[in-house]
Structure formats: structure tokens, C-alpha cells
Amino acid sequence: MDPIKNPFAPGAGTAPPELAGRDELLENIRVAIERVRLGRPTKSVLMVGLRGVGKTVLLDRMRDEAEGAGIQTLRIEAPENRSLPAMLAPELRRALLRLSRNAKAKNLAQRSLRGLAGFAKALKVKYKDIEVGFDFDPEPGLADNGDLEHDLQALLEVAGAAAQKAGTALACFVDELQYVEEEQLAALITSLHRTAQRKLPVVLVGAGLPQLRGQMGRAKSYAERLFDFPEIGPLSEEAAKIAIARPAKALGVDVTPDALDLVVRKTHRYAYFVQEWGKHAWDAAPASPIRKQDVEAASGAAIAALDESFFLVRFDRLTPAEKRYLRAMAELGPGPHRSGDIAQQLSRTVTSLAPTRSQLISKGMIWSPTHGDTAFTVPLFNEFMQRIMPERDWKKA
Ligand SMILES: Nc1ncnc2c1ncn2[C@@H]1O[C@H](COP(=O)(O)OP(=O)(O)O)[C@@H](O)[C@H]1O
Ligand SMILES: [Mg+2]
Questions:
Q1: Which residues are CB-contacts of 201 (< 8 A; sequence separation ≥ 6)?
Q2: pTM given for the model
Q3: Which helix (H) or strand (E) is 46 found in, with range?
Q4: Which of 4, 202, 263, 304 has the smallest number of CB atoms closer than 10 Å to its CB?
Q5: CA angle 375-55-385, nearest 5°?
Q6: Exposure of 370 by Cβ count < 10 A (0-12 exposed, 13-18 middle, 19+ buried)?
Q7: Across the strands, what pairs with 44?
Q8: 21 CB under 6 A from ligand 1?
């Protein structure tokens, strides 16, 4: 059918035509943010899950809904190798400038902007990537200690007080939180703990790979009590079908039940894969309805597109030793796997492979569900590794 009208939207962070199966989670976040606004005890929320399950699009939707409800939002994506204060400063500035237009919040918002100026100047020594415009001169003694943990606390406290005056809340939406360094996570946790104790309306809605939960616990042992960690997994069978059927229907196209069943099976209900199969099945179908054989015919193209867009971007950033490690894991199946079994595949010791394993963890390729276990952070990555590094040559590669 006409590819121009194709509604499906595979892509990292690309909003789907139908955000299927996430209503309950969206409602929980809405409630949490509204509770924060009222100063009721509420946990911040960190969504954890593998790549491609739909965390980023959820975060974006939650943010849009919060903005619609008059919440002041900050949106940050933590890339590798950038500091949290550098990413936070300009977003906080935008929120504070908006707050300073509110008559009740004006004074505190301006004071916060002074705090932000002091914060940025003092921390610039350590976090050289901080770049933020100054609207006011710093207020000596306010958030300008040069110690992130202390200064972030002071800054979020005064900013939270400004939000409170305006009858709103500050909600920070942070994606890829697993890339934030431990001491910076610790500062964030302490600051949120402080604002929560003071009943100030500041809340974090974050997303990250599954290792985030452990990272937070290591950064501050009480983090597990301070946050909820909803796990974002594959869609339910019903949601996966809705994700395909509804956007098609909206364009007058039906999808047969056995075609939907096959999409469920081929994609294992992973959101990214569902979009990819939807897209290619649409293109493959001659006319409505999209049938089982169209889904079947689309599979080759869907897998090729996934390899290009979803898998290869990750694979290309790896060293040869890292690739071999992942390939050895793939040999053992989808996982998780024991470190000893992986080492055995490579005829190496666990200790000698430890540096490679930890590099792969910090690159976000693998994680450790329990001590000594290793799992992929990308669904079906084992199958991809077998495609890209075929049996015959990987051991000598
Ligand atoms: N609930 C959903 N229903 C349908 N498609 C979804 C859903 N969530 C995500 N997607 C699609 O899955 C893909 C990956 O989403 P993304 O948010 O980037 O995942 P993550 O951030 O977890 O890696 C995108 O193409 C998006 O449109
Ligand atoms: Mg994402």
C-alpha cells in the first residue's frame, strides 16, 4: 500500500501513531506529579527497561501531559560524557524564566536565577562543559560552594520554593540516566531527598537501562526507598495488536487476526520491532486487509531495517574484544549467562575478561541482573550477533 500514508514509526524516540498499553503508567505519573504539586509525600519515578521498549516516548508523552496541566518541566537526555549540571543548568534556567513571569513566584524565581549563576560559576571549575546564560548576578553564598551535592540541593530548594509560590511543580524528565556518573547521581538523589523532606514540589521522572536501579542504590543506599522503579517491558499481546490495528484502522485499513498473531510472534512484542514490522507489512500488502502472508513477506525487510537502524549503531561503537565477548554470549542464547560460561566460550578466565565486561556495561550494552550474571540490554541482540558475526569466523576474529 501507499508508503506515503504508512502510519508506523520505527525509530529511537519517534512517537508512535498509537501509544499502546501504557495508560496505567501514564495515570500513575499524572497522580504522582499532582501529589507533588500539593506537597503530598510522593516518590520520584525511574522507568527501567531494555532498549526499544518505549521509555523515551513515554517520557515525552508524560512531559507533554504535565506541561498541559501547567507543570514546569525540564527535559534532559544524558548523553555519554556530559555532566549532569551542564545539562540541567540551561533547562532549569528556562523553567525559572517562565516562573519569573508569575507575579507570586517572581521574587523567588529571580533569586533562583541568581543561585543558578553562582552554581554555574562555582562548578565550572570541575564541570567544564557548563554553559548557561546569566540573567542576574550571583547571590554570594547561594549554591556557589563548588560542591555539586551541596549546590544542587540549595538550587533545587529555592527553585522548588518558587514553583510552590506559583502553585505548580518542577518536574525533571531525564532520559538515559544510566550514563550519569555515580557522584552526580548521588547529588541528584540527595537533592530530591531534601526537597521531599521540605515538601517542596520537585519531582524526577527518569528513564534508563535496567542497570540504573543498582547504580542508584550504589550512589546512595536509601535511593531504593526514595524512588519507584517501574519496569518497562514488552507490550502485552493485546497492546501489541492495538499498536498495529488501530493506526491502520484510522486510515481505513484492516489487519486480519492471524496477521496480528504473526506480528506478535515475530516481534516478541517489543515496541520498536512492532513499529518496524507494522511499517514493512503495510508496504508489502497490496491492499486492505493486511494479511498473514504480507507480514511474512515483510520480515526480511523488517529485520534488515532493524539491523541498520537499531542494532548496527550499537555494534559499530564496540572494540573487537567487546564484539567477541558479545558474540560468545550470543552463542549461549538469549541469556542471562554466567560469567564463567562466557569465559569458557572464549577459552579465557573470568578475571581476564573483567575489563571487557565492565566496558560493555558502561557502554550500556550489557548489565548484570544478579551477581555473576550477564544479560543483553538490547532485545534479540543474540540473534543479531549471530547474523553479523557468523559461526565460522568469530572465534578467530
Ligand atoms: N506503547 C507503544 N506502542 C507502540 N509503539 C511504541 C510504544 N512505545 C514505543 N513505541 C515505538 O517503539 C520505538 C522505540 O521507542 P523508544 O521510546 O525510543 O524506546 P526506548 O527509549 O525504550 O529505547 C519507537 O519507534 C516508538 O514509536
Ligand atoms: Mg530511549
A1: 36, 37, 38, 39, 160, 163, 164, 168, 169, 170, 195
A2: 0.94
A3: strand 44-48
A4: 4
A5: 35
A6: exposed
A7: 227
A8: yes
Predicted confidence at residue 397, as pLDDT, reads: 52
Closest C-alpha residue for ligand 1 atom 25: 10
Q: Which three cell numbers stand for residue 106?
A: 517572581
Q: Which portions of the chain are predicted below pLDDT 50?
A: none
Buried b (16+ CB within 10 A) or exposed e, 44-75: bbbbbbbbbbbbbbbbbbbbebbeeeebbbbb
Closest CA to 61 of 80, 33, 102, 92: 33
Ligand 2 centroid, distance to 51 Cα (angstroms): 6
* CA–CA separation, 334 and 320 (whole Å): 21
Alpha carbon distance 334, 57 (integer Å): 26
Closest CA to 129 of 76, 67, 86: 86
Look at ligand 1, atom 23, and give the residue with the nearest C-alpha: 52
Task: Decide: 364 in ligand 1 pocket, CB within 6 A.
Answer: no
pLDDT of residue 81: 80
The predicted structure's pLDDT at residue 396? 62
Atom of ligand 1 nearest to the CA of 49: 22
Task: Please tell me the predicted confidence (pLDDT) of residue 79.
Answer: 75
Which ligand does the CA of 57 lie closest to? 1
Please tell me the distance from the alpha carbon of residue 255 to that of residue 276, in angstroms, as a whole number: 16
Pick the atom of ligand 1 nearest to 274's CA. Answer: 5
Q: Residues 294, 301: contact at Cβ < 8 Å?
A: no
Contact 156, 194 (CB under 8 A): yes
For residue 276, give the ligand 1 atom closest to its CA. 25
Atom 9 in ligand 1: residue holding the nearest Cα: 54
Residue 72: the pLDDT is 98
Q: Ligand 1 pocket, 378 CB below 6 A?
A: no
Look up residue 289 and give its three cell numbers: 486487509
Which of 272, 314, 377 for a ligand 1 pocket mutation test, highest count of atoms within 8 Å of Cβ?
Answer: 272
What's the gap in Å between 194 CA and the centre of ligand 2?
28
Alpha-carbon distance of 65 to 71, in angstroms, equals 9
